[in-house]
Amino acid sequence: MSEAAIAADTGDTRGAYQLLPETDERGLRVAVRGRIEIGNAQQLFNDLSARIDGAKALALDLSGVEYFDSGGGAVLIALRQRMAKAGGVLRITGSTPAIDGFLGLVDQDALLAPPPLPVSRHVGLAIKIGEASIATWHDVRELLLFTGEVVLGLRDALLNPRRMRWRETWLYMERTGLDALPIVALISFLMGLITAFQAAVQLTQFGADIYIANLVGLSIVRELGPLMTAIIAAGRSGAAFAAEIGTMKVSEEVDALTTMGFDRTRFLVTPKVVSLLLMLPCLTLFADMVGILGGLTVATVGLGLPVQVFVRQTRLALGIWDIYSGLVKSVAFAILIAGVGCLRGFQAGAGAESVGRVTTSAIVAGIFLIIVADAVFTVIFHAW
Amino acid sequence: MIQVQHLVAKYEDRVILNDISFDVHRGERFVIVGGSGCGKTTLLRHLIGLQRPASGRVLIDGADVAAAGEDELRTIQRKFGMLFQNGALFGSLTLGENVALPLEEYTALPREMIQLLVRIKLNMVNLGGFEEFMISELSGGMKKRAGLARAVALDPSILFFDEPSAGLDPITSAELDELIVQLNRSLGTTIVVVSHELASIYTIADRVIMLDGGAKGIIASGDPRGLREQHDDPRVHAFFNRQPRPAHDRPHGGINPPASGSAV
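Predict the joint structure of the above. Result:
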């Protein structure tokens, strides 16, 4: 045997191998010594490939291999593939128990076959449009069915209040209402502050400082209060509802409820819708007050208006209907947020990823519906 | 290979395992057995570094898992693979991508080589040709085998299994047991299994330790067949012969800790 030993440092600290090649009348023979592992598999394959160089037969003596893992297995199979493509043959003349053990674990013939082609996911435009239409139709149908379910659930709750799951409802009221107070306070205070500040810059030019109370009061109570509170609720509660029901769906808890003969609406949906229905108007009122307080801060600190003057002007500007209209909106927003949150939860498929998707969708759809409903309300109230 | 020395495991103030010590030797098939709630899974989580012991040491190849920093722990964790009870495959990836992930992250191999290795691993667990399948399209038994393929992706010298037969039919379960034994025989992989399935235990184990919830520690160790034939402890005898416990020895009420409240 020619001792043209080539030490190949793989750059991997885990070890190296040696190739001892010689050529006889039957073709190329290479003895490999050392370690063949995942870390140096590619290098060994490259080294051996370079040596084959058109040879029709390669005999590998692996009896000197100290360590062999699936990296070595991959080299052998890749070499076999390469030799087969060139019409050659790879023979293994020496082996170790570890190599035999490994080769015994895999079906080499199956691995030598070309890998299965990835399934083509490409579809034409017509099919895409068709599929999207069907999906939209299903979505609308589901939405209508679910709306019916929610309405029936609310009717049951009204007719049979004792059958309501009050314990859950209280819990959700605490989470959707009480726990939301700090963030609602912060955001509405800043909204009032910002509105007042922007208005002050303009109004002082005309000496109309006092009307800052009208502007802040009306815009907060009619529009910004209900809207911002609803958007916060969509992000907090709508998302939470979707994630909770989605996770329950994934872990088959929803199926368990259904199998036990329970009405999923009464157990999962009504408590959430009712709690948000009760809490969102309260949060809106709270936001109205804190928002006006923000305006008051700018008016007194920035413009030097006395507190009493600001309060009197606000009371003059605001009619009771202004406050009611905000509350009416918030009731509608609550049903939309809780409804779409629960619906998206039930639409979760399998796995963690789908829970993430339905949660995102619950927030996006929630905010979209809030804005659309707000526009509809504005038109209705204006025409009234 | 693995040495556990005076390990104490606690959840808050509740002691689950009190001062247990044992060794697992290289190339051994070692099974941790015991009834539900005895701390088997807790012990396993300590072995793989998911939980730190209250006191004591867990040495893998001489490196202390319990005292290791983040980086050191990651180095130790590359020496072993873990098959979780339900496979714990990533649902957002295909089966092939799941197996390829550790290879892509931890080796510098080119794409073709990784693809070939993925095919070898899947072929080993009889899932050849399923590369493009999404995880949700696989059955329970296939998920287990797929989890095993991912666990052996980097040819670890130790493999941990949490309840490999849980939720599998007897045939699939027996096939998985056989595969575990084959991996051990062919590749010399050290096998550590947590199980309470007697059939699996008899097939897999060279040696078992039995944990008991009441004793909070090891109450028996040795060859499972030997333990079945002769052991003075009625708990051990009952377990290995699949008999109910003596009435005075049964706990009242729940065994598992109450679940903590979920947040909305």
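Chain B has one domain: 2-245.
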